[in-house]
């Protein structure tokens, strides 16, 4: 069945805003501006950027209540789910999101935007393993096969960055560290997904409202933590003038002194809000499979733009890694590849029971990606295995 104009609009919004979320963050990292000390230096404020991302997610809560009031005024029904929940159920997932997003933004500062987006696919591996351990899930054969392909893809992308990356020898350690930090952040993201599925999903909270509550907790918690971070000095680990873990004051000075930087930061905040909204709507109006395909296309867009603006050179090995990741995601979620083989009797015995359409429309347990079950997202920005959070994105 052909897509309606509204569905095309949602798909385009998800694709564009998802790409903008990652590209705007990387663009800000590459800009310089006059800081609080009166000197021009690079914008190196990952925690401040993460706070901005949470502000974008917080706006989803505002949008939810606006839609609620509009529908009430027009006497239109609106699915509100369960409104008797305790908001504190979102605290633990929000803390995971805060840590994971901050670490990913540090990694993005050190590596390539395309590698950042591709390596976020590692969340599938860790989500599957944690689901077995804590949710007592059974991993089907096609899922294990998909996980193997994802691991091969991650290794290929990392190898491409190290061997063929357009960096000096002095930068190679930073690229490796950035890639490793992004993968480590996926462990935290997977923990968040498992927490949401175990403690949040049973309350049937509307997805837009859930994203907003996590944004609220994340924004205020990280905002408070910016104060002690100002007094913690970490040496050359930080590029800030006084080597502080985070210097929010210097960050605001830089933003105010460079309109391009202000535009990039604003783009990150606005894009994550629209990406979450469009991602939720795509899953509802079409399917979670459509969302996964769009998120894979987002990675391609980010890669093409990064090459076009000369942030990196074309690496054929990275293309191979991306294809392996896409194959792994399709196998894990039993979409495109396995159904095609089943249709033409290449597979004689189904790997598992074919999912009905109702289940197909549920979020996948694999992101921003922003892109999972129930309210799982992300963040920035959020990947193809994340339902609601595109993590720095």
Task: Explain what this protein looks like in three dimensions.
The chain has 393 residues and is mainly alpha-helical. It contains 14 helices and two strands. The chain has helices spanning 5-30, 46-73, 91-110, 113-119, 123-134, 141-164, 172-200, 207-231, 248-256, 259-285, 288-308, 316-333, 337-343, 357-360, and strands at 32-34, 40-42. The model is unreliable at 350-393 (pLDDT under 50).
SS content category: mainly alpha
The H/E string reads HEEHHHHHHHHHHHHH
Low-confidence segments: 350-393
As a percent range, the share of helical residues equals 55-70%
The gist of it:
By secondary structure, the protein is mainly α. The chain has 14 helices and 2 strands.
Task: Indicate the topology.
Blueprint lengths: L4 H26 L1 E3 L5 E3 L3 H28 L17 H20 L2 H7 L3 H12 L6 H24 L7 H29 L6 H25 L16 H9 L2 H27 L2 H21 L7 H18 L3 H7 L13 H4 L33
Antiparallel strand pairs: 1-2
Helix pairs in contact: 1-10, 1-11, 2-3, 2-8, 2-10, 3-7, 3-8, 4-11, 5-7, 6-12, 10-11
